[in-house]
Amino acid sequence: MSDAAAQQPAEAAAGPVQPEGTYSLAQLKEHNTRESLWMLLHDKVYDITAFMDEHPGGDEVLVEEAGRDATEAFEDVGHSDEARAMLPKMLLGDFYGEKTSKSKKSVSAGGSSTSSGGFPIWVVPVALVAAFLAWRVFLA
């Protein structure tokens, strides 16, 4: 009895226990390959490995979103009612914990060709080249 009492404070110090039938972000991230591909959609975890060959958009888009919260990407595409009806067959369980996924805004601000205001930077050199060519044509 003293052993059980001694274990309870240690378990409480370790943090909340993950409920059975739920999946954490760490578990989700372990399944991000073509051989085992899990995805988080609307706080539910799905195993979409068997569906990869059937996906009309190709398997590359699925692998890109694998192992993380793909809700935004799923909704941005505008999936049909038929696609949504397929999800319950692939459901593993509910998500447990906090989601820490990359936001598309932080990715685009850091590595794409847009300025912080969303204006495409490539427009400036193209406009300069066009202005130079127009100047040459009018002077010739």
TrEMBL record:
The keyword Membrane applies. Residues 20-96 form the Cytochrome b5 heme-binding domain. The keyword Endoplasmic reticulum applies. GO terms for cellular component: endoplasmic reticulum membrane. It holds the Pfam family Cyt-b5. It is a single-pass membrane protein. The chain crosses the membrane at residues 119-139. It is found in: Endoplasmic reticulum membrane; Microsome membrane. Gene3D superfamilies: Cytochrome b5-like heme/steroid binding domain. One of its GO terms (molecular function) is metal ion binding. Keywords: Electron transport, Endoplasmic reticulum, Heme, Iron, Membrane, Metal-binding, Microsome, Transmembrane, Transmembrane helix, Transport. Belongs to the cytochrome b5 family. This is Cytochrome b5. It comes from Kwoniella heveanensis BCC8398.
